[in-house]
Design goal:
This protein is α/β, with parallel strands linked by helices and about 500 residues long. It has four domains: about 20-170; about 190-285, Elongation Factor Tu (Ef-tu), domain 3 (Beta Barrel); about 295-400, Nucleotide-binding domain of ferredoxin-NADP reductase (FNR) module (Rossmann fold); about 415-500, Ubiquitin-like (UB roll) (Roll), CATH 3.10.20. The chain is about 40% helix and about 20% strand. The chain has 13 helices and 18 strands. It has helices spanning about 20-55, 60-75, 75-95, 105-140, 145-170, 180, 265-270, 305-315, 335-340, 350-355, 360-365, 380-390, 435-440; strands at about 190-205, 205-210, 225-230, 235-240, 250-255, 275-285, 295-300, 320-325, 345-350, 370-375, 395-400, 415-420, 425-430, 460-465, 465-470, 485, 490, 495-500. It has a six-stranded antiparallel sheet. It has a five-stranded parallel sheet with strand order 9-8-7-10-11, sandwiched between helices. The longest helix is centred in the first third of the chain and has 38 residues, at about 105-140. It starts with about 20 loop residues before the first helix and ends with a strand. Mean pLDDT is about 85; it is low at about 1-20 and about 180-185. The structure holds FE2/S2 (inorganic) cluster. The site of FE2/S2 (inorganic) cluster has 13 residues, from loops.
């Protein structure tokens, strides 16, 4: 399933982050790093000087050391500390990081303010007092180690430790977002209100819902393979393939299998009655009908639904096609009357209770050269077809649509950098967070539905880099595609991925 996604504007209550052009941001970041490193370097020098002053017996050196510390304090440390703080604050304010959006930035701010406060109220007065004490020692000829001198020797390493901590957390960016800023509401995806016109029992456990615009206006156009997100009265959102006539925009038909052990969506849908106000999102199409010299359709159970409009289109185009449709029994196989209107030789109905499992290998071996194979149904059926196609139908182009995320171990997740080309934003996607989660920090309006790599709502175009596809949308033959990416589950194989956003 793949299509462009309708995106909405940012929610009125959420403030879009101020953005700095990439060149300026890099310059600001480089300046910040340089002055911050200089600040740490001078602080390390202060630790060395304070220690030297305490251990040397040469009183003239002691005076010189404290005078040097006072000079550094008033010049280089002031310049570097103010420079690092200002560039750091500017960087936070002018990028999506924000000053109060992430714990690591807030921690750095608190550390910086603590150092500033102690530098003005404690450290500098200690240095000045130490100079006087050192001069007094020099005049009296006897070494006096006074309290300010001891405090400087003890306090300087503490400051250096705080600065180093601030630098380290800049690299690792720990602890995620501040709770308050997590409350930025995600924009509600665009919805079309519909009314349920008719509920029809199609087979045991399968109903058709016919949806129409409440005012009788045409619904959005669609093509075979498309699905809609159905927003149920409880707020649950479920994806159902459209299985009516694409030429009829007055009504949409979806077929729904009741799954009592499921997450509740299908049970709720089966309880709906005509007249119920609902909403849909879409249609979207991740399972489009490709042009091919011939077609083999393989359906299992409710997987027949996206294939029905395809059969009509292919039949109308006069292309050779064949359908293999398996189910538990004829009683559970929906839309049989509609299918029986086609030429019977083109359709093989395989009820498992009397005919066993479909002969998939035979069907694939008999498919014409270059045939498009469309398969929709339970995971076991799709897996079997995916395994058979390379040997039984090597010239075939396989297209599959799954109901749920494929049970595949994609291995360890590794962090990567995500660049949003149009907005020139750089994001770090850590191993323990999804790409969509990170993206939503800066683009809360991004549309997504299943968040499980099944519906295709979140699709993005990739401009450079290599995606690591973890979705259940792309067929096995499409998994090396580098042009699309489903950020709710997918990640990157390359260190950097650039998306058209
Ligand atoms: Fe459904 Fe990403 S594929 S939200």
């Amino acid at each position: 399933m793949s299509t462009p996604v309708a995106r909405t504007s940012p929610p009125s209550g959420s403030r879009a982050p101020r953005r700095l052009p990439q060149r300026w941001r890099r310059l600001l970041l480089a300046t910040h790093v340089i002055v911050a490193v200089a600040w740490i370097g001078v602080s390390a020098g202060m630790v060395a000087l304070g220690t030297m002053a305490l251990i040397t017996d040469d009183l003239a050196v002691v005076v010189g050391v404290y005078e040097a510390m006072a000079m550094f304090d008033e010049t280089i440390i002031t310049i570097t500390s103010v420079g690092a703080t200002l560039t750091g604050i500017l960087l936070a304010l002018l990028t999506p990081w924000g000053l109060f959006r992430h714990w690591w930035i807030l921690t750095k701010l608190v550390i910086t303010l603590a150092i500033f406060t102690s530098a003005f109220t404690l450290t500098h007065p200690w240095v000045l007092a130490s100079i006087d004490d050192a001069r007094a020692s020099l005049e009296s000829g006897s070494r006096l180690i006074t309290e300010p001198q001891e405090m400087i020797t003890a306090g300087s390493p503490v400051m250096l430790l705080m600065l180093t901590t601030a630098a380290v957390i800049s690299f690792y960016k720990p602890w995620g977002r501040i709770r308050r800023s997590n409350r930025t509401p995600a924009a509600k995806p665009a919805e079309t209100p519909v009314v349920l016109r008719e509920v029809r029992q199609e087979a045991e456990g399968v109903v058709s819902l016919e949806l129409a615009d409440p005012q009788g206006r045409p619904l959005p156009q669609w093509v075979p393979g498309a699905h809609v997100d159905l927003v149920l009265p409880s707020g649950k959102v479920r994806q159902y393939s459209l299985c009516s006539d694409p030429g009829d925009t007055g009504t949409y038909r979806v077929g729904i299998l009741r799954e009592p052990e499921g997450r509740g969506g299908s049970v709720e849908a089966h309880a709906l009655r005509p007249g119920q106000a609902l909403a849909i999102r879409g249609p979207r199409n991740n399972f489009p009908l490709a042009d091919a010299p011939a077609y083999l359709f393989i359906a299992g159970g409710i997987g027949i639904t996206p294939l029905i409009p395809m059969l009509h289109q292919v039949a109308a185009a006069g292309k050779p096609w064949r359908l293999v449709y398996g189910g538990r029994s004829f009683m559970t196989m929906a839309y049989l009357d509609e299918l029986r209107q086609f030429v019977p030789q083109q359709i093989q109905l395989v009820p498992q209770d009397t005919a066993g499992l479909p002969d998939l290998e035979g069907a694939l071996r008999g498919a014409p050269e270059g045939c498009a194979v469309y398969c929709c149904g339970p995971e076991g059926l799709i897996n079997a077809v995916e395994q058979l196609v390379p040997t039984a139908c090597p010239s075939g182009q396989l297209h599959v649509e799954r109901f749920a995320a494929a049970d595949v171990d994609h291995g360890e997740k590794v962090p990567f950098e995500l660049e949003l080309a149009r907005s020139e934003q750089q994001l770090h996607v850590p191993a323990d967070r999804s790409t969509l989660e990170v993206l939503r920090e800066v683009r809360p309006e991004l549309d997504a539905s299943c968040e499980d790599g099944v519906c295709g709502t979140c699709v993005l175009s990739v401009l450079s880099g290599v995606p690591e596809h973890r979705d259940s949308i792309l067929a096995s033959t499409e998994r090396d595609r580098t042009d699309v990416f489903y950020p709710c589950v997918s990640r990157a194989r390359s260190q950097r991925l650039v998306v058209d956003l």
